[in-house]
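Schema walk-through. Below, the input block comes first and the output block second. Nothing else is stored per chain. Lengths vary across the set, and this one has 684 residues.
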Amino acid sequence: MNQAAHISPLYTALFTVAAPFIAFLYQALVGKRDQSGIISLIGIGCSFIFGGLTWLAIWNNPIISTQITWFTIGTSTFKVGILLNNLSVLMLFLVPTVALPVHIYSRAYMKGDVGIHRYWMYLSLFCFAMLGLVIMDSLLLMYIFWELVGFASYLLIGFWFTRETAVQANKKAFLVNRIGDLGFLIGLAIVFTQFKTLNLVDLFGEGGLIYQASITGGQWISPVNSMDQIWLTIAGLAFFLAAMAKSAQFPLHVWLPDAMEGPTSVSSLIHAATMVAAGVFLLATVFPLFNESALLFIAIIGTITAASTAYFALGQYDIKRILAFSTISQLGFMMVGIGIGTWDAALFHLVTHAFFKCLLFLSAGAIIHEMAHLKAHSQLDFDPQDLRNMGGLKKYMPKTFILMSVASLALAGFPFTSGYLSKDSIVISAFEWALSKGDFYLIIPISLITVSILTAFYIGRLIFKAFFGDFRMLDQIKDKLHGAPLHEAPQMMLVPMFILAVCCLFPLFSLNPVSYHDSWLMDGLLLDEYTFAPSHTAHLIIPLLLLIGSVVSWIIGWKWYVQHKYPLNVNNPALRASYNQGYINECYQWVFVNGTLKLAQFCYWFDRYVVDALVSFVQFIILSLSQLSVWIDKYIVDGFVNAVASVAYWTGNQVRLVQNGKLQTALYSVFLFILLGLIYLIFF
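--- output ---
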């Protein structure tokens, strides 16, 4: 034990990353011969242990960085290394902490799936990619693992590749994320041009090149280069574009709801602390690069994302899509935290969100798991994910109800939950930031307060429609089944859900249930004081306003969805717009897909009737000229040559007749030539 305590954090960090990679290699080699997932579970368990050791060794201690030379181009040397600071070890511990319950849960949830061996392989690769991403000490290495995370998510989203919807979903995710990857590349190019290095310590370390750079006379001047000031903003927005795609920010959020086509356990991992969190982690890493213009843009996009997707969640009936839009909305909160300069609050919400969102998805998976069994046993055709086919599940799945309710309270920001602390840290900070900026900026915190109340309403709607009232499928199946139509999820699914539920409560993050300032996590991430003054009134009024708004929204939801006093028309245009996600997908279909097809059709028409016609006309001209050349060559040039030859031939024949050896012919010829000469002299 003492020896384990003295293992270098560098080694424990490497073991954390290597364990799932070894599990991936093993599963790739053995294939279908091992479908148990034991090696993958052991791998992520080792990552959890070593990640915890690394976190304990580094948290609030001096950073550790080491690197070796990778390759050299010209005078630039690129190195491979790892960076261990509070931010990186927090993520290094968080990822396996969330992934471990998902792996345990998956052993029951995915049991009997024909492609289970691929599932374990992809899951291990996914965890390896995310763990590698968070400890790399170079933006170039981060980009490599960034791409690997995207590739692994592509495999997991399309895991059930025999479904056309799954194939379309993973292609959509892949293409949208390529847009963000282009932004990452542009950011890399600008940073390397300006500073001649991509090493994080050299760039963002204490007294690093970023801090030595300045804006003078419209120029962005660094110790090694200078360029126009606008490039600083472009670099920040380029990195934000990468985060917009990976963390599903408006208008690049459209891939994440469709990503629900993958297994629910996959959705829980993607939405918790891995892929979608990568964008927030990237922005926190490069935060010193952002100027005020870029930060304001980030805050605005985050607000639009949080508000729009909360509205979209209101009209959904697919239980996983509601949670997907909830994830996007909460990511919007995190982006606002980055934009107002409180990236520590954004990371705090990322960590708390990881636990309660993972639990929400696993609870939804438990419901879908049992509804799918009911569908198979009853031989009825219905959607096991549709809330309209549920109701009254509290009677059949009481443990799942309690666990999902805890996660829902955390999502709504109810007191004594972790979500209350982290969400308040962003909303209150946004209000304080807006007060320091001016009245117009108050739109952002007011929008966040409204979104928080909407969040409580739509998650309450999910709970009410799924667990309360009467089971809507009961009349259709009562003659087909004996006994209870549904039962509680297996123990192997409930145990990891219970662990996550404990992590959704406040003691894990702060002994003070009402003050986020007392959180150990905030204390470890906050390096400088905020740029705005605190408001003690906001710390009292905003939590109270959010609590009252949440309770009122739940009362309304109870009347609408449990007491069946729903006042709205299902064909209400606002509800239809919410259900259809604001018709953004249709807009993209019309503008980009149909527009591309129309452009292709126009190009085809232009090629066939303009380009081909022009080519045919030129061909006709060339053929006509060639035919004219043939005629001239044959009848003019060859005719003239043949005429000269004929005259020469006739003349030769005539002259040849004179050479016959007769004297009278010779005299006749002489006389003829003299006569012709006299005629010439007389007349010419």
